[in-house]
């Protein structure tokens, strides 16, 4: 057995080639028309940024859609109610006219016209102009 000193062991350890450590991180390289290779790390950052923005907007759409859907349904219900009430008012106006006509035809002498006193609007007093 050979005797190896501590210094020699250190020397051997330094001279050994270090093993290539495989990096799991992938890189994006951009090659232009002239064959130059450039780093594309900014593309990765842009991709992460746009994906997070898309995710945030997608979640907000998913959250706000039920609110919008509820408002749309309630608006439709209210428009239906308004059209029904408009139809009822038209029918009541027609019935009122029919009843008034029947009343006039059945008792023409007993109905006296109603006179409503409407006060006349006050007119400003005329101011006499002085001739000088």
Percent strand equals: under 5%
Helical coverage, percent range:
55-70%
Assembly state? single chain
User: How many DSSP-defined strands?
Assistant: 2
- Strand arrangement, largest sheet? 1-2
Name the overall outline.
elongated
The run of helices and strands is HEEH
The number of helical segments is 2
Distance between the termini: 147 Å
Overall pLDDT metric? 82
Q: Which class of secondary structure composition applies to the elements? A: mainly alpha
**Radius of gyration from CA coordinates:** 48 Å
The biggest beta sheet reads: 2 strands, antiparallel
Which stretches are poorly predicted, pLDDT < 50 over at least 5 residues?
Answer: none
Overview of this structure, please?
The protein is mostly helical and 132 residues long. The chain contains 2 helices and 2 strands; from the N terminus they run αββα. It has helices spanning 6-15, 41-106, and strands at 29-31, 37-39. A two-stranded antiparallel sheet has the order 1-2. A hairpin with a 5-residue loop joins strand 1 (29-31) and strand 2 (37-39). The longest helix has 66 residues, at 41-106.
Supply the key terms.
single chain; 132 residues; mainly alpha; two-stranded antiparallel sheet
Short description:
The chain is mainly alpha-helical. 58% of the residues lie in helices and 5% in strands.
């Amino acid at each position: 057995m050979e005797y190896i000193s501590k210094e020699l062991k250190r020397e051997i350890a330094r001279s050994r080639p270090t093993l290539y450590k495989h990096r799991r991180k992938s890189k994006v390289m951009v090659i232009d028309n002239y064959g130059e290779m450039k780093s594309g790390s900014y593309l990765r950052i842009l991709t992460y940024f746009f994906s997070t923005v898309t995710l945030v907007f997608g979640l907000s759409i998913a959250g706000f859609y039920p609110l919008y859907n509820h408002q749309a349904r309630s608006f439709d219900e209210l428009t239906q109610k308004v059209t029904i009430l408009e139809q009822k008012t038209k029918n009541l106006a027609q019935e009122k006219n029919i009843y008034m006509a029947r009343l006039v035809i059945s008792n023409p002498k007993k109905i006296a016209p109603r006179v409503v006193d409407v006060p006349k609007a006050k007119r400003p007093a005329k101011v006499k102009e002085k001739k000088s």
